[in-house]
Amino acid sequence: MELKERVLENRLTLNGSEKNAKVFLRIDPFTEFPSYISEERARRKMFVLRTQVQYEKNCDFCNPYFNTPEPRKHHEGGAVSVPNYFPWSMGQFVTIYPPFKENGNDAPVLHRLFPSELEQKDLTSMIEALWDLANYSYFLGAEAYLFFTNWGPLAGASRQHPHSQFTMLDYVSPLSLLKIEVDLARRYYLNTGKNIYDEYVRMEEENGARRIFSNENVYIGAPFAPKFSDEILIISKKPVSSILELEVREDRLSVMQPAWGIFPFLYFYRSVMNFNMVFHNAPISEIKNSSIHPSKYYRMHIHIYPRKNGLPVDIAGAELGALCSVPSKLPEETAHYARLWYSSPYPSEEYLPKKQVIIEGKPTEVVDEELLDQFRMCMRAMPQRKFYHVDDNTE
Fold first, then answer.
1. Which end of the chain is more exposed for a tag (fewer CB within 10 A), N or C?
2. What digits encode the pLDDT tens for the residues 201-250?
3. In whole angstroms, what is the distance from residue 242 CA to residue 255 CA?
4. Burial tier of 389 (Cβ tally within 10 Å: 0-12, 13-18, 19+)
5. C-alpha angle 343/76/288, rounded to 5°?
6. Rounded distance, CA 69 to CA 82, Å?
């Protein structure tokens, strides 16, 4: 397996000043889509003000037992999945996470706005909801299914109340990311006899530059060719292509819960308030009909796509026109700071992002006081946080 990279150099002159702007062109090994990583783009001046979101105290999801349609499916960890009242396909569910409004209690539900507020029991609910709904899809004969979380308005979330979405797919386009991944992985297996995801994990663990955390169950790292800055890739090291193959609850949790530390890391160290989290599973039709079981060549994995705060959109002409990515941060940098977060039970305030203010007439970099208060509150709430630890308490 080869990880392909070229360095493109642009020599530019402005008012007599020269600079050499480097762009790292990398090819995604799982899709062959190009990623043009340009750190120069992070230095651009943004003339769009950061989007301000009005805090929402109550919504339809705060009391799902009154405001949502039936039938409802209850999951371990306290989440409930309900039919999507505004569907865009068949067999769609919204998985809603606690806390919920109790009948007869007029106190408003205070929504969790920040990724750092995700808890381990939320990840338990997330993976168990996927397990329950994937089996339901299999029983109904769906072609495939998709499970994802949109967190924040810039990631497409129409509700502040934390939730995920599940949809059955009756058709998987040949141009869909899932189909491209599966077909490329199958070709790689037929040519080499090896699983491309297992090979990638082995190479990344040996290299170490983009690895964040790994054990016998899961690999967590920054992808070689990211679609977005600070993107995270989670790959099951268990030989499964789908959640349907993880029949034991403990096996599902062992893949999911080590990712817990990623969310506070993204918020506190990388200023990420909006993200998409997408679960990739082999299509049901592939499991049922393929002459070679997809577990031979594919692996269940998860993408976490941070979305920019400074612009109203971060997918524009280049991405739409050329099916490429133009992130502004190298994944090696992302992984470096994530390892610092994971390596200590007490993550340091030293790496919190800073802003420039004028103190006694001099520009000085300081941490935002509100962010610092949130960080300290987070650390006090869970002392000696071991983010890679699988917490079996889902009460």
1. C
2. 999 999 999 999 999 999 999 999 999 999 999 999 999 999 999 999 99
3. 12
4. middle
5. 95
6. 6
311/179: higher pLDDT: 179
Residue type, 168: M
Which residues share a beta bridge with 214? 219
- Tallying the residues shown for the chain, one arrives at 395
Burial of 341 (0-12, 13-18, 19+ CB in 10 A): buried
Nearest alpha-carbon partner for 249 in 136, 387, 125: 125
Q: Could you give the residue ranges of the DSSP H alpha helices within the chain?
A: 64-67, 120-140, 177-192, 196-207, 249-256, 262-270, 284-289, 317-322, 331-342, 369-381
SS in 3 state form for 97-146?
Answer: CCCCCCCCCCCCCCCCCCHHHCCHHHHHHHHHHHHHHHHHHHHHCCCEEE
Query: Residues 41, 370, 350, CA angle at the centre, nearest 5°?
Result: 65
Task: Fill in the amino acid letter for 148.
Answer: F
β-bridge mates for residue 22, sequence order: 9
Asked if residue 344 has pLDDT above 70, the reply is: yes
Question: Which one, of 210, 218, 207, 286, lies nearest residue 252 by Cα?
Answer: 218
**363 with 354: CB under 8 angstroms?**
no
Tokens at residue 89, please? Answer: 């396909």
Question: In Å, how far are 62, 69, 151, 228 from 154, measured between CA atoms?
Answer: 21, 27, 8, 13
- HSE-CB at 74 with a 13 A cutoff on CA atoms is 2
Neighbours of 357 (CB within 10 A): 11
Q: In what order do the strands lie in the sheet with 211-214?
A: 73-74, 80-83, 92-96, 163-169, 144-151, 274-280, 301-307, 232-236, 218-221, 211-214
pLDDT at residue 390, rounded to an integer: 42
User: For residues 272 and 264, what is the distance between their CA atoms, to the nearest angstrom?
Assistant: 9
How does pLDDT run across 271-310, given as a tens digit for each residue? 898 999 999 999 999 999 889 999 999 999 999 999 876 6
Residue the block writes with tokens 């031979």: 296
End-to-end Cα separation, the chain, in angstroms = 44
